Structure formats: C-alpha cells, structure tokens
Amino acid sequence: MSADIGLIGLAVMGENLVLNMESRGFTCAVYNRTTSKVDEFMSGRGKGKKFVGCHSMEDLVKNLKTPRRVMLMVKAGEVVDHFINLLVPLLSKGDIIIDGGNSLYTDTDRRVKELTAKDLYFIGTGVSGGEEGALTGPSIMPGGNPKAWEAVKPILQSIAAKVDGGQPCCDWVGDGGAGHYVKMVHNGIEYGDMQLISEAYFILKHYIGMSNQEIQSTFIEWNKGDLDSYLIEISSDIFGKKDDAGAYVVDTILDSAGQKGTGKWTAINALDLGIPVTLIGEAVFARCLSSLKDQRVAASKILPGPVAADAHKTFKGDKAQFVEYVRQALFASKLVSYAQGFTMMHAAAKEYNWKLQYGNIALLWRGGCIIRSTFLGRIKDAFERNPTLDNLLTDQWFTEKIGAAEQGWRQVTAASILTGIPSPAFTTALSYYDGYRCATLPANLIQAQRDYFGAHTYEKVNGKRGEFFHTNWTGRGGNTHSSSYNA
Questions:
Q1: Angle of the 278-290 helix axis to the 319-352 helix axis, nearest 10
Q2: Is 50 a catalytic residue?
Q3: Overall average pLDDT of the 71-86 stretch
Q4: Would you say the C-alpha torsion 391, 396, 398, 403 has a positive or negative sign?
Q5: Are 112 and 124 in contact (CB under 8 A)?
Q6: Hey, CA dihedral for 449, 453, 456, 457, is it positive or negative?
Q7: Per residue in 51-70, pLDDT tens?
C-alpha cells in the first residue's frame, strides 16, 4: 500500500492530524522516534484504518508515493533540523518536507533556502486549533517554497476547517518563513486575547463580587454578540466545571501561567520592526509576572495599596451596567490587539519582501483556530475597502465599534487602577488607542533631551520631514552632531 503522505511525530497534534487526513480519504504512513508509540497507535486509534506503521525513516520513505510528502510534527528548533538531516539522504529531487510545528519563521526561511539548494521543497506551515482542531479541522497557514504548494494543497485544504459553505481555512500565505510568521502573530494575538479575558474575569470576580456561576452566565451571553469566539466559549465552560469534591476547578488552579515562546517571539520581532505591539508584549510580561508567585505572595504582605480581593467592598454602582462596561472594555481592547497584529504583519511584509493578503489571512482564522471569532470577517471587509490600510482602527466599522465601547473601557480601567486590580492589557490597549489618536505627543521633549546629551538632532514642527537640526544647548558643544537614524 503506497501512502499519500508520511507523518513523523505521534504526539497529540501529530496523532490527531493524521487521523484527520485518513478520515478525508488519504493513506498515511506514520513514524515516531519512540517506535512503541507507532505500535500503540496502530493497535489503538489507527486500528483497521488506512495507515502504514513504520519503525524506521527508511521504511517511512519507502512507503510513500512520489513526489514524497513528509510532514514533521515535532518540537521546534534543533529537533526539526535533526529530522531534516535524517530525511534528506533518503529523498529524491522534488520531494517535499512540511514542518507543521511552531517553528521560528527565520528558521523556516533558512530551511527553505538550504533544501532548495538540494533540489528539495520545504514548507513551513502554522497549524492552529489544538487537539480538537487538529482532529476535526484546524486553521492552516502554509508558506515556504511555492513550487510545493500544488502538491500539498489537496491534503492541507481537505483537512482544514471550513467556513461560509465550505471555504477552507487554509491558503498559501507567502514565500520563505511567511506561513510561520503569520502563525507567530496569530499566537501573539492569542496571548493578548487570553490575558484580556482573564482580566475581565478578575474584575467581574473581585470588583463586582460575581460568583463563578454568574460569570459563566455572563460569558454565555457575551458569546452571542460581538465577542462570539472560541476563547469566550471555552471560558464559559471552564467557569462551570467542578471537580469530584464539588469545588470549581478554576479556583483550584495555581495562578502561575506558562508559555511556549511564540508570544515572546512576536514581541521581540515587534521591537525589531519598531512597531508598537504593546498589548501582546504586555500579555507576555503578565505571564512572566504571574510566574513570580512566591515573590508576589511576599510582596502582598509589605507593599502598600488597595487589596484587589477587597475591591468588591467599595463597589456601589449598577451591577448590570458595570458588567456591560467590562464587555465594552474587553471588545475595544480586542479590536486594538488585532489592529496591532495586522499592523505588524504589514511592516513585516515590507521588511521581508512578502506579498501578504491581509483579508485572506483574517479568513484563515475564521474557523479551526484558537482566536477564531465572528468579527474576523470585518477585517476582510476592511482590507477589501482599502487594501493599503495602515491601521484597522481607522476603518469605519472599527472606528464606530470602538467609539461605542469607549466609555465603558475608560470606566473599567479607571476602576481597576483605583481599586488595585491589575489590568495591564486593558490599560495598555487604552494607552495605545489614546496615543494613536493624539496628534501631538511629548516626544518633542525626548528629541530635545537626545540632542542635548548626544547631539542626535531633531526635526522641526514647521520644517520638512527628513531635515534635521541641532542646537548647542550649553554653548560649549559647538555645531558637531551625530548622524540621524532610527535603529
């Protein structure tokens, strides 16, 4: 039996992806470094289905139709390079390697070039949706060598989530590392969404004093409107889950969040590009701060200020009205998060010479993935109206929506600050919004300071952009100044 595709790595994502492929009519060869995992799979979930269990890389390659298609679902980094190095001697000209893990886009770019030089094709594709998405239909973001796309397109599009009457949430993103870059930004937005939702939960719990049951009911209602999304849906499920002892599971979980690195990569690249992706960066730092659990417990006993857990004692307002304010704050901040993410992709496309289709990227996220939500179609509409849109916030739909939510947004951030409830993502989103809509910022003083101590020059309010000046602030510095550039 010749297999249509081979898959290496039978962990959660790999196992579910290959089951998805088989259910769509494809025969799949499977291999895992720990070969007992192959045997377990073949006698378990893969029993009686169109799978070829392989105990060696040679066996895997031997069982594939040409051009051979091999998908890696292994840990990012050195492990991917390890398996590529093992595969290359076994493959022939025109064969294809697909990396479906969360690889750094620069690694993917390098691998595309290295394998092209060996007459092999490489695809780096983001896959989002977790365990359930992998099995039933994920969002897939492929990039790499475009010559490989037609050979893998039937498989990837058939297993992807479908929206709008069968449109697959999978299409070619761009050359080189573009696919993994878009997945990286997706994951950064995911970090932001999760932090925003957790802050909304914390405010509802500690400022209004709502029970888990009340919060669950609120999230169920929110999921019927503008906030309709996967993360709101699963959060409502979480608030209702109890353990065998009758305790709410969410209350038994330690408040120390982990991370796998993709949010951090997004924040680092945003700094490299000089793009203010403040909400994602703050979401990453919020996880870092949460991990300092012991320090936070000690600090809570000595640092002055209002206690978040006691904030509900000060609430005197209209409970239903404030719940609506929290919904508005969550939605407005979410709009900022997506706007920042798409602004970053726009800058990356210029920097790395990619031809990204931003509206199409929004549609790739409509189904299957972790950040899927109803308003992603509005992003597609925005870029159809203006393909060169600098910032989604200036699109009419976004402007109107954020305007309608602004009052509640400000009420919530003010209340959280006054009562000592940390809401870093809400507040940084609002600061970005106010900064972006502010025609004049205090950066003139920063430029004056830079010119004073380092002769870094400045532009003038009524001068030509790109024309720089220097002032001898002390009378002792002369007219010599440094060249003008931004790192």
A1: 110
A2: no
A3: 95
A4: positive
A5: yes
A6: positive
A7: 999 999 999 999 999 999 99
Tokens for 192? 């932001």
- Hey, what are 174's tokens? 């761009």
Tokens for 43? 């006698």
pLDDT digits (tens, 9 = 90+) for 375-419: 888 999 999 999 999 999 999 999 999 999 999 999 999 999 999
Average pLDDT, the chain: 93
Strand ranges of the sheet holding 5-8, from the earlier edge strand across to the other edge: 51-53, 28-31, 5-8, 69-72, 96-99, 121-128, 139-144, 174-175
Written as one letter, the residue type at 481 is H
| Separation between Cα atoms, residue 344 and residue 125, nearest integer Å | 19
Q: E strands of 5-120, at which residues?
A: 5-8, 28-31, 51-53, 69-72, 96-99
CB atoms under 10 Å from CB of 121, counted, come to 25
Of residues 416, 195, 423, 211, the one with CA closest to residue 306: 416
* Sign of the alpha-carbon torsion through 191, 131, 8, 259: positive
Q: Which two tokens stand for residue 275?
A: 């793009």
Active-site residue among 37, 183, 205, 334? 183
Is residue 304 scored above 90 in pLDDT? yes
Task: Tell whether pTM > 0.85.
Answer: yes
Tokens of 386: 């203006």
Predicted pLDDT of residue 1 = 58
Of 15, 190, 199, 282, which residue is the catalytic one? 190
* Structure-token match 């092999």, residue found: 120
Q: Is 39 helix (H, G, I), strand (E, B) or coil?
A: helix
Secondary structure letter of residue 162 according to DSSP: E
Q: Which amino acid is at 196?
A: L
382 token code pair? 């925005």
Distance CA 380, CA 377 (A): 5
Q: 160, 137, 324, 132: which is closest to 237 by C-alpha?
A: 132
At residue 457, the 3 state secondary structure works out as coil
190 is a catalytic site residue: yes
Which of these, 8, 157, 160, 138, lies nearest to 71 by C-alpha position? 8
Rounded distance between C-alpha atoms, residue 480 and residue 47, angstroms: 78
Return the SS3 of 123. strand
Give the residue among 205, 172, 197, 161 at the shortest CA–CA distance from 369: 161
Q: Helices 424-436 & 178-206, crossing angle to 10 degrees? A: 120
CA atoms within 13 Å, Cβ hemisphere of 374 = 11
What does the angle CA 460 – CA 466 – CA 472 come to, to the nearest 5 degrees?
A: 50
235 within 8 A of 197, measured Cβ to Cβ: yes
Tokens of 408: 């509640």
Residues 75/8, Cβ–Cβ less than 8 Å: no
Share of the chain above pLDDT 90, in %: 85
